[in-house]
Specification:
2 domains, 13-stranded parallel sheet
């Protein structure tokens, strides 16, 4: 009758777990710089990290190995050089993307675009030209064509007239 039931036996005390330690080898986030909406820069901007522009910039932006983003509030009057360029705000100037250029629906771009991959979202406002031709790895097209003509001459053993060896550049 006075026997303790199993449910009344003392339960072990709750031991608090130590806080989870951050992993030492956790992936680190890429460094990014931000030009805030109240910042105005007149001059050249360059650096070694990604850049987000929400303010105003006039001049030249050169981050060829990094990403450049012009945010919805960003207003830029500059030529922009970057690895991947994303436009959400307003840009007046030429855009040079090493890998890709994206013009979002909310953007207004007045200038020429040069990049191997270009994306214009439906509703974006763009006025300019687009050049998606691949970069020449060495020399100009004229030099390349002259080298091809010389190689053909060596292989065929025939003489090629000078006019055929040098491409016509058109009227001077």
């Amino acid at each position: 009758m006075w026997k303790k039931s199993e449910s009344e036996e003392p339960q072990p005390q709750f031991k608090p777990q130590p806080a989870i330690q951050p992993r030492v080898n956790a992936p680190q986030t890429k460094e990014r710089a931000m030009i805030g909406s109240t910042i105005y820069i007149k001059g050249d901007v360059s650096g070694q990290e990604d850049l987000i522009i929400e303010g105003r910039v006039e001049g030249r932006i050169e981050l060829r190995q990094h990403n450049v983003t012009v945010g919805k509030k960003g207003k830029v009057k500059a030529d922009i050089y970057g690895k991947t360029i994303t436009i959400e705000g307003e840009v007046q100037g030429n855009l040079y993307g090493e890998e890709q250029l994206v013009v979002r629906q909310t953007s207004t771009v007045r200038g020429n675009i040069t990049a191997p991959r270009v994306s214009l979202e439906d509703g974006s406002n763009f006025k300019g030209s687009i050049d998606m031709s691949p970069k020449e790895t060495s020399g100009s097209t004229v030099e390349t064509e002259a080298r091809i003509a010389e190689a053909q001459q060596r292989n065929s053993g025939e003489a090629i007239p000078a006019a055929a060896a040098k491409p016509d550049r058109g009227p001077a």
